[in-house]
Structures are given as structure tokens and as C-alpha cells.
Amino acid sequence: MKHVIVIGAGIIGTTTALALAGAGCRVTVIDSRREAGLETSFANGGLLAANSALPWSSPGTPMQLLKWLGREDAPLLLRPRAIPGLGMWGVRFLANCRAAKYYKTAATLTAFGQQSLAAMERLLGQKRIDAGIQRGGLLELIRGKDAERRAESFARMLERMGAKVRRLDAAQSVALEPSLGGIAHSIGTALLLESDAWGDAHAFSVATAAAAEHEGVTFRWGSAVSGIDLQRGSVAGVRLADDYLSADSVVICAGAMSPSLVGPLGVRLPMAPVKGYSLTLRADELGFLPQRPIVDDYEHIGVTPLKDMLRVAGTVEFDGFDKTLRPGRVENLKRALTRLFPQIRMPAEVRPWCGLRPMAADGLPIISPTAVPRLFVNTGHGALGWTLACGSADLITSMVTSRSDARDTPFSLTRSFW
Ligand SMILES: Cc1cc2nc3c(=O)[nH]c(=O)nc-3n(C[C@H](O)[C@H](O)[C@H](O)COP(=O)(O)OP(=O)(O)OC[C@H]3O[C@@H](n4cnc5c(N)ncnc54)[C@H](O)[C@@H]3O)c2cc1C
Question: Residue 62's pLDDT is what?
């Protein structure tokens, strides 16, 4: 039986391990943390935004970056000191902002998002995974200048990509989501993407890890991989601080840390860490809980009900690998939340968190073999790792077990990234 080592037990690693075990592989997962999903998969926005899976490199992004350069209160913050570190990644990211490339990537991501959501539903149907996934759609608020026209053009773009979109005016939006009553006057059009879902990515990581363990997958917690060994140019095993494990194949699912694991082998992953923040608030202290996720294009935040909690996520910060929780950025999220829900009673405890999105320069994940035989990567999912996890797991599994030739997919490492 083929022994596959998966490095990383975030949402991508746990779903990959489960899919590989289902395909008949003997699987060992190694993670430096003590449990699944404690890095970027921990407190993300929780959206399974399959029907609006869009890249960040959009035609409007370069202007926004310039407008907000160095501004601590901006939703998208490029710190001048981070610019040199972005190097060629930054140039490629900007090149991907051209309109034709943006639409092509958006269509690819949305199709893959829909496929991934279907893969997740299949998985939930087959295995006992209790992760509290909820269904009922995502509400996109389009507010501000020229909102109706922008909403219509956005809706048409999503429909062209296969999404089912319901247009709601302000009164219909508030009838559907009474918590929006305080900002009804500013809602131009809201778009309801009925087939989207949501849930807690950390809970899903833990639940898929447990399901994988049940299928015979071994987890090595608290073990950092220090290197990958080759024999005659091909993967032979991985080095841990106090151990060595041999493997037939290795799959890198190490999120933002993936490039540093494969770099010494000459494999370059054009990825950068993009920091984001979230707050988690108790519904009983807030006094209300929306019934479904709401994404507000005006405040650049998303709010998601997770059982008895509200998750608020947003902000984009280019700050290298620095994971410092900056109080100013937390305050920005709180202020944005107060503007979205003027009726809010801000709880004393808001549980702030930040994580590094593993972002590929062109906004597509990298799900691919590499130039090193039997070394695979499933990473670079950026702001969409939870949304794309189950489709990515199936795809990498078909590559590891040689059921498909990866080089033909849009997610191949051999693509241009321009
Ligand atoms: C604020 C915010 C909001 C977001 N909202 C959403 C959302 O609503 N929907 C969505 O789809 N996505 C969202 N995302 C993106 C999503 O969270 C990520 O794409 C996803 O978590 C990436 O998962 P991963 O498994 O690749 O990485 P991670 O979760 O970071 O997992 C990588 C794992 O690898 C381990 N590791 C790294 N190096 C080593 C090593 N040398 N040895 C052993 N182990 C190692 C780490 O310990 C970690 O557990 C959001 C991200 C942020 C920051």
C-alpha cells in the first residue's frame, strides 16, 4: 500500500488526508501544532462562498492599493515596508488585475467552488462528520454610489458563471434579514446567493481529522517537518526534529509556510502571506444574530452566524509573515461592524484573531505535482481555502494515485501565473 505523508493539518491537509485514505493510501499527517486547524483555518470568515469565489486581483485593486497605501484604517493595507518583500509576487499580482484575466480566473474559481461544495456534500453524505454546516445562502450587500448599476453588473457576471442569484431591494432585504433594519436606507440592491453555505472551518478541520483517523490515518501532532529528503532525485521521506519518516509520496498542505518547505528542493511557489483579521462575538451579548452570512461591499467585511456566535472577518494586510494582532486593525473591524449594525451592543469580549492567507499570485490555488518526482502541493488557496477544500482534496488525490494528469488543470504549477 502506498504510504503518503501529508504535511499540514489545516482545512486543506485534513480533507486531503481523508480523500487519500478513501482512495486506498496509507496516510500519515504531520503538523507542528497540537490539533487540526489551529493556523489560518482557525477563525476565518466561515463562508463556503462557492457562487462568488472571486480573485482579489481585480481591475479596481491597483487604485485601491494606491489610495490606501500605508493607511492603518484602510480595509486593504499595503505597508510600504512590506513592498520589497513582495518582489516578483507583487508584480505578478498586479498583472493579474487586467480585466480579461480577472474574469477568466473568477470563472475558474467559481466553477471549482461549486464543484467543491458538491464534493463536500458528498463527503457529508458518506461519512459521519459533525461539523454544523448550514445552508440557506449568502447575502451580498451592494451599497454606496451607483449601487443598483454595480449590483446588476455583478449579478450578471455571477449568473454567467453559473450562480443562481436573487435580487432584493432594501425592503426585501430587511424582510429577509431584520438585523439590517438600521441601514435599510443605504441598501441599493442585495444579492442572495441561495446555494452557498457556511460553517466553522476549525470545527470542520477537527471533524475531518477525526474521520480520517477513523479510516486509519496516523497523525503526528507537535512535530515540525524540517526538511524533505530525496534519493536519486525523487522523494524518499521527511525529517522531523527527532525522527525520520520514509514515504512513497509527500503532499505539501502547509498553508503560508509551503514555499519554505519546497524551496530548498528548487521548487518555487509564487505565493505570499496576506494577513486578515476576525472577531468572534457571543450572540447573547450582542442581542441579535443574523440568520445567514452577510457580505458588505461598503464596509469590506463579512459577518457569519456560527451557532451562538457571530464571526466578523475582513481586512487585507500585506505585512510579511508578521502575525502580530494590531489593536488598530481590531478597532477598525469593530467600527465597521457598528456601522453595519447601528443597533449593536458591543460586547466587552470580541475575541480577535489574525491569520495568514496563503495567496498565489494569480489567485488560483496550486494543486499539482512538482518537478521533483512524487512531491505534490495542495496549497495557495488564499481567501478561499475553506470554500475550495473538498474539491482540492479530490483533485490532488487523483494526481497522487495517478488517476489524472495534473499538468492539464488550471491549478498546475507549470501555469504562467501572469
Ligand atoms: C481573516 C480570514 C478570513 C477568511 N475567510 C474565509 C472564508 O470565509 N472562506 C474561505 O473559504 N476561506 C477563508 N479564508 C481563507 C482560509 O482560511 C485559508 O485559505 C485556509 O485556512 C488555508 O488552509 P491551509 O490548510 O492551506 O492552511 P493552514 O490552515 O494554515 O494549515 C497549514 C498547517 O500546516 C502546518 N505546518 C506549516 N509548516 C509546517 C511544518 N514545517 N511542519 C509541520 N506542520 C507545518 C501548520 O501548523 C498548519 O496547521 C480566510 C482567511 C482569513 C485570514
Answer: 86
